[in-house]
Amino acid sequence: MTDAVTIDAIAGGAPKLALDKLGPLFEQRTGHRLALHYDTMSGIRDKVAAGDKLDVLLMPVPLIDAYVKDGMVKVAGRATLGIIGLGVAIKAGVKVPDISTPDKLRQALLAARAVVHATPSAAPSGAHSDKVIKQLGIAEAIAGRVIHRPGFAGGVAMVASGEAELGIFPKSEIVNVEGVALAGSLPPAMQLDIIYGAGIVVASPVAGPAASFIQFLIEPESRKVWTATGFDPPAA
Fold first, then answer.
1. C-alpha to C-alpha distance for 217 and 198, rounded to whole angstroms
2. How does the average pLDDT of the chain come out, rounded?
């Protein structure tokens, strides 16, 4: 049996709920310890560039593949975890706004006292949320009411407390979170489907256990957890 090691893995906020459930199961099965870290995409890129001790990266597939091309992530062991879209968070128990069309979404955002989403320069969801607001033609109208904060770092909590009436985040950062509810997904014409993947850092001294962790994440039983936390299965 392989000696137990610590695997340092870092991810954005989207897969946090799934990883918080799957991590302990992997530890129980293997005896390895997972050190799970979460940050914005810009924060993860900074840590990789600085040479921080990291074994597994969990990021949108285009970013993983860019690291593969640059020789920083191994080709072997790379996996696609699932697809997550963006949704609108509301405080649990309040009336659910109609956001089914771009016009309905525009009305809901204009009516909101405050709207929160991730910082555009720090996360794909934040950049897309900013783009949607601009596409709807309401950027100037609500500029003073838009708050930039990642969902996992207080953004969703602001919705739960009522500080922000609406939040735009990956659905996995909204579902099953106490105090908030999912009003719905962004309208299809304005949706962003983020394909999440995982890869092993070339410099990792625990590449074997890291590969077993990624393999565990895509097992059939693990897929059920991804689905329950808002992810759709990757394309076959």
1. 9
2. 94
Per residue in 70-87, pLDDT (tens digit) is: 999 999 989 999 999 999
Q: Contacts from 43-50 at CB under 8 Å and sequence distance 24+?
A: 43/122, 44/10, 44/11, 44/12, 47/10, 48/72, 48/201
- 144 token code pair: 């003073």
Residue length of the chain: 236
Residue 89 neighbours by CB distance under 10 Å = 29
* Domain membership flag for residue 75: yes
Q: What is the pLDDT of residues 19-69, one digit of tens each?
A: 999 999 999 999 999 999 999 898 999 999 999 999 999 999 999 999 999
Q: Which of 122, 99, 125 is nearest to 112 (CA)?
A: 99
Examine the domain organization and report whether 117 and 57 are in the same domain. no
Residue 24 inside a domain? The answer is yes
* Dist CA 170 CA 117 (whole Å): 10
Closest by CA to 30, choosing from 11, 50, 2, 57, is: 2
State which residues form the domain around 31. 6-83+195-228
